[in-house]
From TrEMBL:
One GO CC annotation: cytosol
GO terms for biological process, alphabetical: valyl-tRNA aminoacylation
Protein name: valine--tRNA ligase
Species this protein is from: Aegilops tauschii subsp. strangulata (Goatgrass)
Keywords on record: Aminoacyl-tRNA synthetase, ATP-binding, Ligase, Nucleotide-binding, Protein biosynthesis
One MF annotation (Gene Ontology) recorded for this entry: valine-tRNA ligase activity
EC number, UniProt record: 6.1.1.9
Enzyme class: ligase
Source organism, top-level taxon: Eukaryota
Record-stated family: Belongs to the class-I aminoacyl-tRNA synthetase family.
Transmembrane region(s): none
InterPro entries registered for this protein in UniProt: Val/Leu/Ile-tRNA-synth_edit (IPR009008), Valyl-tRNA_ligase (IPR002303)
Amino acid sequence: MLGDTTIFVHPGNKRYKHLHGRYAIHPFNGRKLKIICDAVLVDPSFGTRSVKGVI
């Protein structure tokens, strides 16, 4: 979790689509996490439909 640099969201999810290209703040270390839409990495039928990652 401390090494996370990105949050991937599914582009078909209306809740997150408007966040593409924006940043969230990591709650532990204050770093910016880029939010990216990706239909390959995020399964729209599972969980919150968002995935944290490192790129």
